[in-house]
Design brief:
Largest sheet: 8 strands, parallel, barrel
Number of domains: 1
Structural class: alpha/beta
Helix content: 40-55%
Order of helices and strands: EHEHEHEHHEHEHEHHEHEH
Distance between the termini: 38 Å
CATH topology: TIM Barrel
CATH architecture: Alpha-Beta Barrel
CATH class: Alpha Beta
CATH superfamily: Luciferase-like domain
Strand order of the largest sheet: 1-2-3-4-5-6-7-9
Length: 338
């Protein structure tokens, strides 16, 4: 089992737009969060590809990764993830090869097989209904473009070839867990929004893992939703922003982050409440003592090598405070380079 002293923490960001805010503001907040996370000792800062979602501004994921990497100096920056069936593997290899050349040794490439949007979005993207079925071949094609150039190789990623950008597979089921195990790649489970199959996927990944040139032993990252505050009561209050946002997602409404409310009574029916709570089944909500206890519980439960924390707040100040609290519990701050 992993111990508290071995815990590795990272940050997931969707460049969320708050109610009454702007996309430009969300990008400024993303940079401020990344810079703070770097100073507090978080290992990675990842951004996720989403499309046609009013309230999430991370659609041009590679562009935003470059923006964040340029505003930081040591934290690893990457995708959590790029939805590979939406793209030609060559294009992603070129984009991330470019990022790696600009910010050597700091870029991660996490890959998912979902759309990052609804069925209509998939159609507009030119994605076929069964595109996800080809995910294994697309992953292997992309890895070849990022690796050494073979003799007589007609198509090369320029830049990208020989960059060997670390590739991760992401998932909320056992599909990508098994693929990551077969290919010998690190695996990240999306517990921040779909925790139901977390333990099954992790167990399968470890059971079937085959060492590769990329990785000699299994490496598991678990995404968790975290709302930390100075007291349990304050955290419960602030978490209503996330609950309202998920409720809007379930209803098919725009998901701009709303301000917190004193209670959710009257805002949802029983079925909606159950759906929201299922979405937040792995949520870590509370003051410092409760957050520490819950994170250590998940560490014992999963033996994860790394946790990637996703915090959804209306105010940037509250979000920064949440990550600061967790860092104070588990991390040693790094030296800032001015």
């Amino acid at each position: 089992m992993k111990t508290e002293s071995k815990i590795v923490l990272s940050v997931l960001d969707l460049a969320g737009v708050r109610e009454g805010g702007t996309v430009s503001e969300s990008f400024r907040n993303t940079v401020k969060l990344a810079q703070a996370a770097e100073a507090w000792g978080y290992r990675r800062f990842w951004l996720a590809e989403h499309h046609n979602m009013a309230g999430i501004a991370s659609a041009a994921t590679s562009v935003l990764i470059g923006h964040v990497a340029g505003a930081t100096s040591s934290i690893r920056v990457g995708s959590g993830g790029i939805m590979l069936p939406n793209h030609a593997p060559l294009v992603i290899a070129e984009q991330f090869g470019t990022l790696e050349a600009l910010y050597p040794g700091r870029i991660d490439l996490g890959l998912g097989r979902a759309v990052g949007g609804d069925a209509f979005t998939a159609q507009v993207l030119g994605r076929s209904p069964n595109a996800g079925d080809h995910f294994p071949e697309l992953v292997q094609e992309l890895i070849r473009y990022l690796g050494p150039v073979s003799p007589h190789q007609r198509i090369q990623a320029v830049p990208g070839s020989n960059s060997n950008v670390p590739v991760w597979l992401l998932g909320s089921s056992t599909f990508s867990a098994h693929l990551a195990a077969t290919l010998g790649l690190p695996f990240a489970f999306a517990g921040q929004f779909a925790p139901r199959l977390m333990l099954d996927a992790i167990e399968l990944y470890r059971e079937f893992f085959k060492p590769s040139a990329a990785l000699s032993q299994p490496y598991v990252m678990v995404g968790l939703p975290v709302v930390a505050a100075d007291s349990d009561q304050q955290a419960a209050y602030l978490a209503t922003s996330a609950r309202q946002r998920i409720l809007r997602l379930i209803r098919g409404q725009p998901i701009f982050t709303p301000p917190p409310v004193r209670g959710m009574d009257g805002l949802w029916n029983l079925e909606e409440q159950q759906a929201v709570e299922a979405h937040l089944g792995a949520a870590v909500i509370g003051g410092p003592a409760a957050v520490k206890q819950k994170l250590l519980h998940f560490l014992k439960l999963t033996s994860a090598d790394e946790f990637m924390l996703y915090s959804d707040f209306y105010r940037l100040e509250d979000r920064l405070r949440s990550y600061e609290i967790v860092a104070g519990l588990f991390l040693k701050p790094t030296i800032q380079n001015n």
